[in-house]
Amino acid sequence: MDIYLPIAEVSLDIFVLLGLGAAVGFLSGVFGVGGGFLLTPLLIFIGVPPTVAVASSANQLVGASVSGVLAHWRRGNVDFKMGYVLLIGGLAGSVLGVGIFTLLKRLGQIELTISICYVLLLGVLGALMMIESIRAILRLHRPGTSRRRLHQHTWMHGLPLKARFRRSRLYISALLPVGIGFVIGVFSAILGIGGGFIMVPAMIYMLGMPTSIVPGTSLLQIIFVAANVTVLQAFTNQTVDAVLALVLLVGGVIGARIGSRFGMRLRGEQLRLLLALMVLAVAAKLAFDMAVPPADVYSIASEKG
Amino acid sequence: MTPGRCSAGGERDPVTAPLAISFDGFDVLGLLLVLSLLCWGPPARAQGLAADLTSHLIAITTGFTGASVVLFGATDGPGDVIIAVRGPDREMTVRRKSRVAGIWVNTQEVTFANVPSFYAIAASRPVADILSPAAAAFYRLGLANLKLAASTPAPSVVVDAFRTALERTQQEAGLFVERMSKVDFLGERLFRATIAFPSNVPTGTYLVEVFLVRDKDVVSGQTTPLVVSKVGVDASVFEFSKRQPGFYGAIAVLTAMVAGWLASLPFRGA
Hints:
The complex is a heterodimer of chains A (305) and B (270). Helix content of chain A is 69%, strand content 8%. Chain A has helices at residues 14-31, 36-45, 50-74, 80-107, 110-141, 175-191, 196-207, 214-236, 242-263, 268-291; strands at 2-5, 10-13, 162-165, 170-173, 298-304.
């Protein structure tokens, strides 16, 4: 059954969209990341214009993160103070990101930029995650080898504006989370992602937050960054398809439930390795597409004149 | 000239758009009423052609997968009929990719100022057989005769290549159709043709031109408007997103938040 998407201006099968939402929701339920990094490329793949895919994914993400945060909040796993500090950087970053998006769209380079950013981000993160998870799995088999030190001092701890984050049991410079939030805000605007898959490793490895607090706190700030991106995209580019976002959300919620149950049966290291492989596969596919001669070297952009 | 019937043969004026229509989503019915009155004016006198569409509105709804309307009419004697359907003009930018450092990048672009967003031809016999090239060029019949002006300064060789690419891409998308359907004659004077629109048909006011052809020249012509419009919820969403973009964005966010909250509710019981 086809459904006409008013902003994307295409008719797509509603079951394909629901299935896509469910598949991405399932993965986000298993791995605890938003799944935007998979959703946007998949939407483009099934024929949604890239600019609409990016903006509508951000809209879908708002809803997915709200339900995620509520679930974590009930278990007391959200550091609100840390979330707000990340958010300050995130909002500023997303304003800059939407500006860059608009400029690139006018220059005709937005699709290339989206692809390159994805390949770089997914490639680097996928590789890092894979190395880390393989090490963790090996460590399990050889007990007694070196444990990571609980607290390491680096240049990051010399920065000014120190603040105490009680839930995360951290005393660090507020500039650090603001900076991380800013960078992720820029990317989330350009790529239509919440940045969970960048944010989660950054919180664990750079800030040193306890793993249990990370997903809820990351999702908390994603709600606001994604909401900001949605409004800015709607305002500047008019590319937010609310109908598309809602259909994806319905599928996503169902998928996330099944996914989170499934995820509980797998071990953490195995999960991270699987996620790493998936991320690398998406990066490889996108890199391949950029290098292969396109089916048609010409493309057309139309505007009402 | 009677409004709604341009005597193309006499005045050498191919597409006098008889009605400059600014489409406003809210008074489609009123507009159509006026249009139909104009189109059903007094019967043609000197002209040898009368034609109309079964419907002057194509409504794009949630389940839209394309639509077709039937054009029917009569001539005052033997002859051939050519039908041209033109969508509203758009500005279109054609970009060309080339290889830069191993990856394919958009490196060149040409903008065409007024490209019909939809263009289709139907005829009772192949246009080349029944119309002289000069007449075809004058009435802009056939893709080659479209006036596509490049607004980007570029050598004509480049512009031609980009124009060819534009025509090809639009043909592949089903938006430029050189031989849409056959105009069928029922007897010597009555004719009918089916005009089919794909699901990606652009919205706006279309002009359907009907030409009566004899001895390789156009002897009579008539123009009928056709409105392609989003209706219902989709139209409201679209209009709203264009008119109140900030407000639309805020509502999109709120809707998603409420949906997310609703989705998390049953977790409480679990």
